[in-house]
Q: What sequence folds into this?
């Protein structure tokens, strides 16, 4: 598991390359041979055209709501000169020819922007080559439009279906010509998503919906602490419960350890649930029953008071700057453990067959990850594992790269020699982790007599996602732990910057959660910039602009883009207009996943006198993008999820147990709590950045800064209780 | 076990199940209508919302025996062809993200519009508060309900 995780960053860096290689990497012979015989003609691994002209486009990134079911095919369709209205979209299933198929890190569009377009353009050029050969004319006289190749001088044309067989035999162009941004007809515009109709009539298939003949249903009784051992199982009553077929121990592989459970397997899900209730399991929780958030935060605070490991991106000598300063300020910020709590709980159908092959239907962010992890776990090779990724009913990082619940289902199927559908209860989901890691951020800054910032230190303390199950961590920094705060991402002009990290190990599993460490780091970082602005006696938005201007950023650099985003936000949020008494406005800006988002949050008092969030205005610079409406939808989602994390329940632990269990104690934002939202997407010709996550990190600091504006009270610990302000 | 006859979407289903079984699991696993979703099992999230004689109920918390012989409508029965004004409005506003909560949202919204054809924001909030959307589609849900309210009704319910 840890190898997969360690490799995630590599894959983000290299997938653009493998993507291209994959489109152009098969030889002409490969393309020509088996495919010419098939009824469907695969022109590249991502485009298939049948003789009647039906175009099938392959989506290599599972859709969890982020819109890849439309965005990936859109990249192909743009270059292929076809409308998305009449194409068939097929989710890939982890075959090597489709390359990396793991969605995560807001990577799909920014990493596949070029490879997918290249695949579409290659197919277009092969269709043109086929038509030109049929007419014996130069390819340069032919054009592609609306699913037809046209011979421009004579206006003759062929439909793609008529050309498919021949096109598949054409040489694959080495460097197909991509369209100019100004000629885009699909990309960069709002477009309806083709998964939407399936999601309004109940026909969209999620992992939990899969059903295969002979399937049994399973639920797993788990240790009240995460990680207890099964001492004794009294299954007499459970086995007598109607419909229960088996009671077996289960295994949940997670970060190099195996978490035990007791599975009840029955002929219906409710029979399994009832059997689980009748089960009496004795657990040995020793070693797992000590963890408490109170003690853990104390420990993190102690670490935050000491020097951490200095990140390479640090510069100058912040400590000397602090000593020479006219004024220094310190603040410590704390963010809680939170759960992903996607609406679809973990669910998978697995069939471990007699011949040792394994078939899986599940919600997974990454079919390639799943194939590899399952093969490794069950001592076979990925080619023996078939994965059918379904629509994910939300994930937010939970269902990518761990595959713990999928492996549980495979394990159970192997035990009982039948296909098994495993469905986690909501209680399993909320109490058993993994969680977004709880973090402490300690910040210090110095000002000279003129209010100029001379030094800045940001210490990040918390559990490293990447270090779980690993030993070689001494002196290392989790690759993702400093997201958002290194100078690359935070281009303020400050001469002396120290960025430090201290790992605080936990036995509780932690995992990527929408925007990962940027979601926790930026709360401290951008709240503190606000504190520094007030200490310098400046308007917080103007102060940020000044700090950016001082760096004299090159045109189009991150610094210049920050300036543009904040300047537009200042206008759109009517920042300079005075607010009535009792209201407050706060700003924050963050770069994460190669996109920049700035939020202005307004808080005010409702009729009941209680403070509430009235409005969120966002300016997002995500570079070029595929679907403007998806960008806006994702940003709306980020605001709602960011508000939940800032305002609603934390996951807290006592004696190794999570104290929240379901949506009654782990409350999330509901429709009546949603503020007015206004989103502005900057037009751009820059390389695409991420979209699924960057709208989240600025929310909490902008909100806390707004609360300060309204009440003069600094919120340094999340979640905050607005009712008590 | 009990032999029960269920009337789901105007079709009759004979099932042989434990009468305590929540209606949700019978709809999903016996009638194979998987549009209705499981989200919490304790009537907190609304993912399992169906209509019982036109009124929205949380099927995860209703024993199947209590629904026998009554008129049950699931998302699959909202219209035969996505023609319900709310389904059209949901598509027009591009409401769903992951989509998992949306069957429940639509069943709550359709019950609301049936009793209150042009609800205010406050009335929408009151009727839709029991339905969680973790993806955060709430602003669009609100817009889509207003849009549907302004449309001429079509399709069946
Ligand atoms: S599953 Fe019924 S309300 Fe959540
Ligand atoms: S659309 Fe994903 S939970 Fe609502």
A:
């Amino acid at each position: 598991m840890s190898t997969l995780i360690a490799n995630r960053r590599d894959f983000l860096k290299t997938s653009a390359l493998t993507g291209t290689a994959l489109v152009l990497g098969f030889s002409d012979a490969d393309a020509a041979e088996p495919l010419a015989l098939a009824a469907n003609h695969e022109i590249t691994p991502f485009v298939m055209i049948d003789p009647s002209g039906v175009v099938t486009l392959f989506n290599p990134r599972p859709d969890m709501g982020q819109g890849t079911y439309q965005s990936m095919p859109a990249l192909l369709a743009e270059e292929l000169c076809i409308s998305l209205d009449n194409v068939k979209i097929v989710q890939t299933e982890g075959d090597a020819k489709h390359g990396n198929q793991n969605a995560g890190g807001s990577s799909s569009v920014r990493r596949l922007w070029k490879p997918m377009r290249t695949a579409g353009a290659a197919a277009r050029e092969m269709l043109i080559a086929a038509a030109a050969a049929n007419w014996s004319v130069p390819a340069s006289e032919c054009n592609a439009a609306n699913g037809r190749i046209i011979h421009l001088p004579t206006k003759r044309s062929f439909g793609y279906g008529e050309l498919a067989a021949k096109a598949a035999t054409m040489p694959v162009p080495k460097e197909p010509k991509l369209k100019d941004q100004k000629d885009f007809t699909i990309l960069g515009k709002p477009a309806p998503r083709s998964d939407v109709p399936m999601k309004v009539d109940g026909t969209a298939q999620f992992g939990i919906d899969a059903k295969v003949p002979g399937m049994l249903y399973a639920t797993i009784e788990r240790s009240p602490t995460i990680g207890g051992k099964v001492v004794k199982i009294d299954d007499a009553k459970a086995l007598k419960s109607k419909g229960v077929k088996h009671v077996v121990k289960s295994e949940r592989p997670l970060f190099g350890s195996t978490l035990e459970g007791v599975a009840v397997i029955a002929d219906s899900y409710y029979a399994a649930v009832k059997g689980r209730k009748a089960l009496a399991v004795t657990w040995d929780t020793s070693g797992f029953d000590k963890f408490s958030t109170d003690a853990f935060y104390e420990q993190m605070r102690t670490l935050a008071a000491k020097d951490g490991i200095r990140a390479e991106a640090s510069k100058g000598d912040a400590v000397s700057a602090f000593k020479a300063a006219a004024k220094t300020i310190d603040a410590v910020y704390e963010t809680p453990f939170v759960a992903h709590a996607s609406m679809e709980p973990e669910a998978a159908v697995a069939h471990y067959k007699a011949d040792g092959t394994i078939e899986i239907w599940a919600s997974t962010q990454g079919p390639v990850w799943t194939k590899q992890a399952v093969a490794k776990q069950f001592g076979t090779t990925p080619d023996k594992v078939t994965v059918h990724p379904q629509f994910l009913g939300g994930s937010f990082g939970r269902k990518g790269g761990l595959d713990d619940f999928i492996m549980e289902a495979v394990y159970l199927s192997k035990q009982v020699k039948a296909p098994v559908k495993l469905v986690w209860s909501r209680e399993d989901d909320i109490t058993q982790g993994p969680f977004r890691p709880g973090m402490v951020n300690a910040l210090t800054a110095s000002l000279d007599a003129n209010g100029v910032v001379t030094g800045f230190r940001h210490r990040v303390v918390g559990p490293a996602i990447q270090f779980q199950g690993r030993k070689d961590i001494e002196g290392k920094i989790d690759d993702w732990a400093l997201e958002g705060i290194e100078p690359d991402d935070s281009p303020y002009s400050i001469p002396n910057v120290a960025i430090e990290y201290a790992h605080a190990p936990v036995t509780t599993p932690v995992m990527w959660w929408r925007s990962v460490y940027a979601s926790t780091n930026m709360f401290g970082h951008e709240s503190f910039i606000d504190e520094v602005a007030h200490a310098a006696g400046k308007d917080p938005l103007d102060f940020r602009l000044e700090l950016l201007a001082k760096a004299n950023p090159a045109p189009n650099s991150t610094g210049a883009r920050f300036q543009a985003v904040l300047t537009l936000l200042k206008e759109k949020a009517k920042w300079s207009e005075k607010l009535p008494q009792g209201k407050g406005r706060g700003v924050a800006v963050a770069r994460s996943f190669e996109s920049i988002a700035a939020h202005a949050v307004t808080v005010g008092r409702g009729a009941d006198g209680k403070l509430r969030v009235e409005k969120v205005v966002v300016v997002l610079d995500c570079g070029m993008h595929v679907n403007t409406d998806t960008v806006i939808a994702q940003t709306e989602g980020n605001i709602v999820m960011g508000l939940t994390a800032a305002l609603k329940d934390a996951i807290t632990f006592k004696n190794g147990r999570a104290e929240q269990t379901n949506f009654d104690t782990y409350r999330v934002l509901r429709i009546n709590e949603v503020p007015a939202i206004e989103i502005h997407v900057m037009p751009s010709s820059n390389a695409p950045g991420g979209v699924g996550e960057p709208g989240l990190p600025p929310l909490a600091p902008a909100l806390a800064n707004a609360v300060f504006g309204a009440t003069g009270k600094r919120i340094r610990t999340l979640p905050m209780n607005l009712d008590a302000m | 076990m009990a032999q029960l006859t269920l009337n789901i979407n105007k079709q009759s289903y004979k099932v042989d199940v434990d009468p305590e079984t929540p209606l949700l699991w019978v709809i999903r696993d016996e009638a194979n209508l998987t549009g209705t979703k499981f989200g919490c099992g304790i009537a907190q999230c609304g993912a399992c919302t169906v209509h019982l004689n036109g009124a929205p109920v949380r099927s995860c918390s209703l024993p199947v025996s209590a629904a026998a012989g009554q008129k049950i409508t699931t998302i699959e029965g909202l219209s035969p062809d996505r023609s319900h004004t709310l389904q059209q409005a949901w598509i027009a506003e591009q409401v769903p993200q992951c989509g998992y909560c949306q069957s429940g949202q639509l069943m709550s919204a359709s019950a609301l519009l049936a009793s209150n054809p042009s609800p205010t924001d406050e009335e929408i909030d009151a009727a839709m508060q029991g339905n969680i959307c973790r993806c955060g589609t709430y602003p669009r849900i609100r817009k889509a309900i207003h849009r549907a309210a302004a449309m001429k009704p079509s399709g069946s319910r």
